């Protein structure tokens, strides 16, 4: 059995059916939990304070929707005006209604969730939010369905610019299917920007079968290195970590169960670019970019991920992959680009890999024979 089928997939094998996993998760979020305070741990909560424009947008979201929020991060990428956005596992619709304001009346936001009681709350407040936002008609839609099968939800190939998901993929019965479907419905140059829970090691099957640990977004979490391999296997090459934070759980009984396994809340961005455009490693082609300072609310600098903060007006050297993530996406108008890929200078220093060979004349230890 491939290690890529860990986490929720083990739960599927033990329980005997994907449907049982779906039923357990739906029951937990539809009946067991009635409000945020009912959570048994802090794994699905975030203490990070949102920026002012997000706080302002959240203040316009209906209190009944806010009360059923169970996310673990803030999934709001920049440059959303007029775009089509999909929220995987939208729950009661908090992030959908937040994003609705950011894409504007000409954009659209679709939320998918498999828990009927959550979808009911979201749909019930659609007209209220459109009026609150000053829109003639709602720019939101909610679909009752499974994020592992977006085709059954009626979502066509290449129909979204951005996909977000907030602490949900760890609950999915088939994580590979979720990522593959996300890749399918994204347009070229689009991205999956999502927060989720990851583990420091593979979670044992006995813990995966624990309904509370699973529902609390812990035992369904992927081991971080399995996630990276899984993302690449469906076409999301070079996943970029935006931000991360440790999860403390704050529940003595559950902490005792998980033992030495550490859990983290992390936000990744996965770009859909033509096959072969992004290389397995960061390669140096002598390229650079200059940020124009034109992305709203980021006049002095802007960060692509946790390792690439670009100051306005300053030449910033980049590897070939970073060049493409800026040049071949919606961010291109905000940068000037220097260089092409006509000359290769080797591995890009500082990206986790370096020349494996000794540069001393004596060479590496060992005999002098060839091969």
UniProtKB/TrEMBL annotation:
Lineage, top-rank taxon, reads Eukaryota
Pinpoint the Methyltransferase domain residues: 81-232
Recite the UniProt keywords alphabetically.
S-adenosyl-L-methionine, Transferase
MF GO annotations: arsenite methyltransferase activity
Query: Gene3D superfamilies annotated for this entry?
Result: 3.40.5.100, Vaccinia Virus protein VP39 (3.40.50.150)
Question: What is catalysed by this protein?
Answer: arsenic triglutathione + 3 [thioredoxin]-dithiol + 3 S-adenosyl-L-methionine = trimethylarsine + 3 [thioredoxin]-disulfide + 3 glutathione + 3 S-adenosyl-L-homocysteine + 3 H(+); arsenic triglutathione + 2 [thioredoxin]-dithiol + 2 S-adenosyl-L-methionine + H2O = dimethylarsinous acid + 2 [thioredoxin]-disulfide + 3 glutathione + 2 S-adenosyl-L-homocysteine + 2 H(+); arsenic triglutathione + [thioredoxin]-dithiol + S-adenosyl-L-methionine + 2 H2O = methylarsonous acid + [thioredoxin]-disulfide + 3 glutathione + S-adenosyl-L-homocysteine + H(+)
Give its E.C. classification number.
2.1.1.137
Determine if Transferase is one of this entry's keywords.
yes
Q: Which CDD domains match?
A: AdoMet_MTases (cd02440)
**InterPro entries linked:** Arsenite_MeTrfase-like, Methyltranfer_dom, SAM-dependent_MTases_sf
Q: Pfam families recorded for this chain?
A: Methyltransf_31
Answer whether the UniProt record assigns the keyword Transferase to this protein: yes
**What's this protein's family per the entry?**
Belongs to the methyltransferase superfamily. Arsenite methyltransferase family.
Tell me the protein's name: Arsenite methyltransferase
List the source organism.
Phaeocystis antarctica
